[in-house]
């Protein structure tokens, strides 16, 4: 099996470009380029039987539809082939009988960014890139640092100064150069551009090169295979730059052209935080492009993307699918993160919690029927982020072993005990404090802008901390 890549195509202009040199955006309109393949040739080897027989190569099982030509430059650290898991207890809480979770936190860097960077780094190195750079909110930077290290090329990661400490540590541990910026991802992009111009580094920014989306599209390829060559009724996707949503929509088209699936498409749902919801606002307004979001603020750092270069592609996929968008208030992200864990679906990222909260809203409104097949993308693990406020934990004096009532009261949260029982607050220190900067951004509900959003319905959520 080998790549069936033929050329690159302007996503809006349709102009054709050489796929065997390093490319960025379409020079005609500055919009993304998309990889195109000889699907007739791919169909000769990419059959259901052959795919089922391929094991152990993760997302590279789909090599005919991926851009790397030389196997020697293909970097594989275990990305892809993540499980599609039924979530009956969480589904019961949301009123959904067939809720499933695509568990992307099982990728090697703990997030779905590994897929895109595996493809993009492999292809960039194959085409001669000797240095790489990316602006990131955290997880993409960690993925590039990891895959760049595996490829043996120097990497620069440009991060907002309030990026979670674990993301910065991940990048540093991989040996990448780190630049912290006072600002958001768009400000990091400006800094990255200046560094790129001075160093000659190739920029792997979201959709500003054509191959991260190819790695991300493997989520859609896998989804069809996991559902016995059908697609779900609804896909709920936490959307920042939207590479994965665009990639999956592209994957569905390619699978149909290969004769592997039919014409049915899921309704695509954009889930965003209320503090940064440019796509949801554009969906509400019925526009083909999204206006930049002013003063973005949310704890879900991967959703703090005020302007996406692929906005037209995102909005087009949502419109074609009959989908929608939901902006989730910050307090509901925190509470849903806890509900998901309480219902046995794991400690998910704030971005993933946003998608689950959007799902709850749509189920409550009847937009999603109880018997529909719903796939929510859990884009990454929660322990790479500062936790939500969980309140105080009881600390029992060892002498209290002689006073079981005091221990019982402490476990129940009753501080009115006869023996001294301390309460130790559990809180994460922000990276801004760790770096000695002025103050973290205010992401309280009161500080957020007021976008179009729908409140979380009444659910059996964990109580807010006292």
What is the gyration radius calculated from CA atoms? 23 Å
Distance between the termini: 59 Å
Indicate the proportion of strand residues: 15-25%
Mean pLDDT: 89
Give the SSE string. EEEHHEHEHEHEHEHEHEHEHHEHHEEHEH
Which spans of ≥5 residues are poorly predicted at pLDDT below 50? 415-451
Task: Count the E strands.
Answer: 15
Secondary structure category: alpha/beta
* Helix content bin: 25-40%
| Total count of helical runs of at least 4 residues | 15
Largest sheet: 6 strands, mixed
Would you write up a description of this structure?
- With 466 residues, this protein is of the alpha/beta class.
- Helix content is 35%, strand content 15%.
- The chain contains 15 helices and 15 strands.
List its traits.
single chain, 466 residues, alpha/beta, 6-stranded mixed beta sheet, 4-stranded parallel beta sheet, 15 strands
How would you sum up this structure in a few lines?
The chain has 15 helices and 15 strands. The protein has helices spanning 39-45, 48-53, 88-94, 113-126, 139-151, 165-173, 185-199, 212-226, 243-257, 278-285, 311-321, 330-342, 350-365, 404-411, 431-434; strands spanning 5-10, 16-17, 33-37, 84-86, 98-103, 132-135, 155-160, 177-181, 202-203, 234-238, 267-273, 324-328, 373-378, 392-395, 422-425.
